[in-house]
User: Which sequence fits this backbone?
C-alpha cells in the first residue's frame, strides 16, 4: 500500500515537472523561431509588434528557465544563454560603435565613440576567455555541459567565417587587400586562442576535454549546416515546381497616349532634375 | 576569363573555409584526441534535428509566401510533410537503430529534446560568431575613406 502511494506520488511529481518544463521552457522555445518568422513576414498592421513582443518574452522565459524549471535538464541551455549574454552585448555594442564612427555618409557617431567601441569589443572577447580560464558557467554544481559545446563552436565558427569573409573581400571587394590582411590577422588571433584552449587546462576544464569537444562540435556544426541546407534546397525545389505550374499571366493592354505622357512626365521630373 | 564577382565563382568561397577546417583537424590529430567515438552519432543527430526544425520553421515561412499567391495549400503541405518525415526519421532512427543514441540519454524522447537544445546552442554560437566577424569586417571597411566612383575631369 505504501509502495503504491509513493509510486503515485512520484508519477504525480514527474508529471508536474513535465508540464512545468513544457510551459516554461519548451513553449517559449517554440515561440522563438515561429514568432521571428511571423514578425519578419509582414510589415503592416500590428502583427510585427505583437510577434516581436512574444519573441522577447519567450527569450526572457528561456533565459530564466534554470530558475523557473530547475528540475528540467534542458534548462541548462537557458542558463548558458544567460551566462553569455553579457559578453555578447559588449561585442555587439563595440561593433555598432566602431562601424558608426567610421567613414559612412549618414548618422555618424562622434569620433570618441570609436576607442570606446574597440575597448568594448576587446572586453567582450576577454570576458569569454576569462570564463574559459577561470569561471565557466556552473550549473548543478558542475560546468554547464552546453558551455563545453558552445565555446569550441564559437571559436571554430569565428575562424571559418573569417576565412570566408577574407575570401569575399578579395574576390568581390575593389582594392580591399589591406582589409583582407587585417581580417587574416583577426582570424590568426582566434586561431592562437583556439590553440591555447586545446593546450592549456582551465580551472575546471582540461585541454584534453576541449580537444575532444572541438572534434565533436565540428561534427555537430557540419551536421547542422548540411541539415539546414537540405531543408532550404527542398523548399526552393517545392517553390520552383509550384511557380512553374502556374499559368502564364494575362497580357495587358497597350499604354494609352495619356498614360505614355504621364510616364514621360515622371521620368522627366526624376531624371532631368524636375521642374521641366 | 570569368570575372571575380561572377555568380559562377561564388562557390569558390567555400574553399578557404574547408581548407581552414582541414588544417584545424590536422592540428587536432597532431596534438592527440580524447574520446571522440561519438562523432558520427553527433553528426547524424545534428543533421536530422536541424533538417526537421528548419523544415518546420520554413513551413511557417511558406504560409507568408502563400499570402502573396492566393493561398495555395500544396507548397505548405509539402514542406509540412517534410518536417513530419524528418521528425519520424529521427524518432525511428533513435528507437530502432539504438546506435544513434548518446550515452547520457536513456530514451529516444530525451535524446530528441537534448538534440533540440544542442541545436539552439550551436546556432547561437554560429550567429554570435557571424555577428562578430561581420562587425569586424565592416569596422575595417568603414575605417577608410571610400574611393570616388568616378574621377572628376580636370
Assistant:
Amino acid at each position: 500500500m505504501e509502495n503504491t502511494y509513493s509510486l503515485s506520488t512520484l508519477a504525480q511529481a514527474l508529471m508536474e515537472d513535465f508540464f512545468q518544463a513544457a510551459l516554461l521552457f519548451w513553449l517559449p522555445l517554440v515561440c522563438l523561431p515561429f514568432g521571428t518568422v511571423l514578425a519578419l513576414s509582414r510589415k503592416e498592421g500590428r502583427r510585427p509588434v505583437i510577434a516581436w513582443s512574444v519573441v522577447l518574452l519567450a527569450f526572457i522565459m528561456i533565459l530564466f528557465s534554470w530558475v523557473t524549471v530547475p528540475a528540467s535538464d534542458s534548462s541548462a541551455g537557458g542558463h548558458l544563454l544567460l551566462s553569455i549574454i553579457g559578453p555578447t552585448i559588449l561585442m555587439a555594442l563595440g561593433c555598432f560603435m566602431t562601424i558608426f564612427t567610421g567613414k559612412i555618409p549618414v548618422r555618424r557617431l562622434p569620433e570618441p565613440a570609436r576607442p570606446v567601441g574597440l575597448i568594448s569589443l576587446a572586453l567582450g572577447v576577454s570576458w569569454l576567455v576569462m570564463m574559459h580560464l577561470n569561471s565557466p558557467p556552473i550549473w548543478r554544481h558542475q560546468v554547464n555541459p552546453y558551455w563545453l559545446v558552445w565555446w569550441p563552436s564559437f571559436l571554430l565558427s569565428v575562424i571559418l567565417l573569417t576565412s570566408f569573409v577574407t575570401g569575399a573581400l578579395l574576390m568581390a571587394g575593389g582594392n580591399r587587400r589591406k582589409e583582407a590582411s587585417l581580417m587574416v590577422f583577426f582570424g590568426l588571433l582566434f586561431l592562437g586562442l583556439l590553440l591555447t584552449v586545446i593546450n592549456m587546462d582551465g580551472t575546471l576544464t582540461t585541454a584534453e576535454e576541449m580537444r575532444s569537444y572541438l572534434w565533436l562540435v565540428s561534427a555537430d556544426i557540419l551536421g547542422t549546416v548540411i541539415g539546414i541546407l537540405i531543408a532550404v534546397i527542398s523548399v526552393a525545389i517545392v517553390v520552383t515546381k509550384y511557380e512553374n505550374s502556374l499559368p502564364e499571366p494575362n497580357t495587358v493592354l497597350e499604354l494609352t497616349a495619356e498614360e505614355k505622357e504621364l510616364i514621360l512626365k515622371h521620368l522627366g521630373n526624376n531624371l532631368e532634375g524636375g521642374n521641366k | 576569363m570569368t570575372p571575380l564577382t561572377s555568380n559562377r565563382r561564388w562557390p569558390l568561397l567555400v574553399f578557404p573555409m574547408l581548407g581552414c577546417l582541414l588544417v584545424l583537424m590536422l592540428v587536432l590529430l597532431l596534438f592527440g584526441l580524447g574520446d571522440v567515438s561519438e562523432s558520427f552519432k553527433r553528426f547524424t543527430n545534428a543533421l536530422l534535428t536541424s533538417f526537421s526544425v528548419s523544415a518546420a520553421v520554413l513551413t511557417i515561412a511558406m504560409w507568408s509566401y502563400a499570402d502573396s499567391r492566393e493561398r495555395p495549400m500544396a507548397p505548405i503541405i509539402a514542406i509540412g510533410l517534410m518536417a513530419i518525415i524528418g521528425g519520424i526519421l529521427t524518432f525511428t532512427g533513435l528507437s530502432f537503430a539504438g546506435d544513434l543514441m548518446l550515452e547520457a540519454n536513456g530514451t529516444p524522447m530525451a535524446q530528441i529534446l537534448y538534440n533540440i537544445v544542442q541545436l539552439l546552442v550551436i546556432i547561437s554560437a554560429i550567429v554570435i560568431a557571424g555577428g562578430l566577424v561581420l562587425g569586424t569586417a565592416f569596422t575595417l571597411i568603414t575605417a577608410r575613406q571610400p574611393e570616388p566612383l568616378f574621377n572628376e575631369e580636370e
User: Anything to note?
Assistant: Helices of chain B lie at 14-31, 39-67, 74-96, 108-142. Chain B touches chain A through 90 residues (CB under 8 Å).
